[in-house]
Amino acid sequence: MLLLSPAGSPESLRAALQSGADGVYFGGAAFNARRGAANFDENAMLKALDACRLYGARSFITMNTLLTDRELPAALAYARFLYEAGADALIVQDLGLIHLLKRELPDFSLHASTQLGVCDIPGARLMQELGLKCAVLAREVGLDGIRAIHAAVDIPLEAFAHGALCMSFSGACLLSSMAGERSGNRGTCAQPCRKRMALSRKPGPDDYALSLSDLCMLEHLDDLASAGVSWLKLEGRMKRPEYVAAVTAAYRAALDGANAKELATHKQRLLALFDRGGGKTGYFYGDHAITGCVAEAAPAAALLRELAQSYAGENRRQPISLHLTLRLGEPVRLKITAEGRASISVEGPAPERAEKPQSAARYLEQLRKLGDTPFIAASCTGEIDEDAYLPVRSLNELRRRTCEALIEALRLRRKAPQAQPAENLVPAPRNEPTQILALVRNEAQARAAAAAGAEMVALEASLQAEAALNALQDLRGPARLLLALPTAAPQGKETARLEGLLHSGLVDGAVAANIGQALMTEGLALRIAGTQLNAFNTESVHSLKSMGFAEVMLSVELTKAQMRDILAVDYASGISAYGRAQLMQLFHCPRKEARGCGGCTGVGDYLEDEAGRRFPLSSVKGADGCLVRLLNCLPTDITDYLAQLPRPGLVQLAFYEEEPSEVSRLIARAKAALAGEAVEPPANATRGHWSRAVE
Question: What CATH number has the domain bearing residue 442?
Answer without folding.
Answer: 3.20.20.70
